[in-house]
Amino acid sequence: MRIDVLTLFPDFIDQSASFGVVGRARERGLLQLHGWNPRDYAQGNYRRVDDRPFGGGPGMVMLIEPLRACLAAARAAGAGPAPLVYLTPQGRPLTQAKVRELAALPRLMLLCGRYEGVDERFIQAEVDEEISIGDYVLSGGELGAAVLVDAITRLQDGALGDAESAAQDSFEGEGGLLDCPHYSHPVQHDWGEVPAVLRSGNHAAIARWRRQQSLGRTWLRRPELLDEDALSKADRKLLAAFREDLAAGVGDPLPTPGEDGTT
Fold this sequence. Notes:
Number of domains: 2
CATH superfamily of the largest domain: SPOUT methyltransferase, trefoil knot domain
Keywords: Cytoplasm, Methyltransferase, S-adenosyl-L-methionine, Transferase, tRNA processing
Family: Belongs to the RNA methyltransferase TrmD family.
Shape: elongated
CATH topology of the largest domain: Alpha/beta knot
Function: Specifically methylates guanosine-37 in various tRNAs.
Main location: cytoplasm
Subcellular location: Cytoplasm
C-alpha cells in the first residue's frame, strides 16, 4: 500500500513510521510512505503557506495554492486514484471498521492541517473525507496521521508476525468487542495468579473464557459497543455468568457498573 502525507513536517511522519510494525512493514515493501511539504510549492521569497483569516480572529489559515500544487505533485508521483483524508477534530470519529476500509485501498493520501486549519475552499474542492482520532485538539494533524498509518499498516498482509494477532485485537472479530485479558510468565506473582483455565490446555474452555471476558469487559468499560439483543444465546449466558461472578467479587474490578450496565 502507498500512503502520501501532505504535511509541513514530513520528517515527523517519516520518523514516527520508522519503528516497530510500521518500520518493519516499510522495510519489507508492504508500505510505501511519502511525505510532501506544501512549503516546497509555495511562491515568493518567504514561501508562505498561511495567512490571516477573513473576518478577523486569532491564528492563521493554510492557503489554497501551496496545498493545491503540493497535492498535484503527490498525485502525479504514484499510479492510480487515491482519496484524500483530512485529519481534523471536525471529522467523523475513527473506528476499526473505517481502518479496515482504508487498509483495503491500494493508495491513500492524508492531509495534516496546522494553525487554525485549512482554507474551506480547498477542503470542499479536494478532500474526500474528514476523520478525527478523538474529541480533543492537537497542534496539527501529524499525530493523527501517524495513528492512522499505524492502524492501517497492522492490517496489511504480512505486517504482523502472527496473522491472528490483528484478528484478536479489540474491535475486531465477532461483535467488535474489547479484547480479553492476557497473561504471561510467571504463573505465580505478588500481583496475582494466571487463571487456571489458561493453563488447562483445554482449548474449548479457553475460547469460552476469552469470549466471556471480552463480553464482560465491553459491558463494563464500553457498554455503548454492546448490543445485547443481538447476542447469541450462548453469549448471553456467558455475560450473565460474568455479571454473577462480578457481583460475588470475582472478575474484572474496573469499573463498577451501574444498574443499567453503564459505568
